[in-house]
Amino acid sequence: MEMGKRLKKINEDNNFFYLTVALVALLISSALAEIVGQGVIDHILQVFIIVTFIVCLASLRFDKGWSRFLITLVCLWVLATLVKAVFNIREMDFVMLALTFSFFFGTFKSTAKQVLFHGKVNTNKVIGSVALFLLLGLMWAIVYLIIIEYSPQAFTGLEAITWVKISLTRRISVSSR
User: Average pLDDT, stretch 59-73?
Assistant: First the structure.
């Protein structure tokens, strides 16, 4: 009930604040998922992604064309998540990455249109420009993930280790000094 009230309070004067907060929460949760490991954290990350979708839908509902496309993307993303969970089809990772990229690209396009081409500059538009920056970073990250998913040896000179191993290596090197 509280979440519904907050989503109704999102308007064209504060929509980018909510969008930026959702994107930052998504980035923090994905970093925590990498540090903590797999399992329950993956499901928590998926919940954060779904919440981000919902907040983006509420924040950008003023662009009607994008709203319909976003609803379609969310439905397809949830369907792909369920198919992956039930049937454990590895190729669904690529589909989910492509859908997520489409979501961030469309969100970027709609946000850029509202920030850059409508009305005067205000606090909401400045925060919207931060959201644009975060969306660009997310899109590049997804492009790299798609490349790695398609061709795991695409990047040379990098050792594929988990964040947990990086963290442990840093602790060991600091404690040995």
Answer: 77
Distances (CA, A) of 46 to 10, 41, 117: 23, 9, 33
Report which of 2, 63, 54 is spatially closest to residue 23, judged by C-alpha positions: 54
To 10 degrees, what angle do helices 163-175 and 15-36 make?
A: 70
Q: Residues 84, 93: contact at Cβ < 8 Å?
A: yes
Report if pTM > 0.70.
yes
Q: What is the DSSP string of 66-101?
A: HHHHHHHHHHHHHHHHHHHHHH--TTHHHHHHHHHH
Closest to 135 (Cα-Cα) out of 113, 115, 105, 114: 105
| Cα–Cα distance, 116 to 50 (Å, whole number) | 27
- The pLDDT assigned to 52 comes to 78
Give the side-chain half-sphere CA count within 13 A for 87: 11
Helix axes 92-117, 123-150, angle to 10 degrees: 160
Q: Are 121 and 100 in contact (CB under 8 A)?
A: no
Residue 130, SS3 per DSSP: helix
**Residue pair 129/115 in contact by the 8 Å Cβ criterion:** yes
| Residues ≥6 apart with Cβ < 8 Å to 119 | 125
Q: In degrees, to the nearest 5, what angle opens at C-alpha 153 toward C-alphas 151 and 159? A: 135
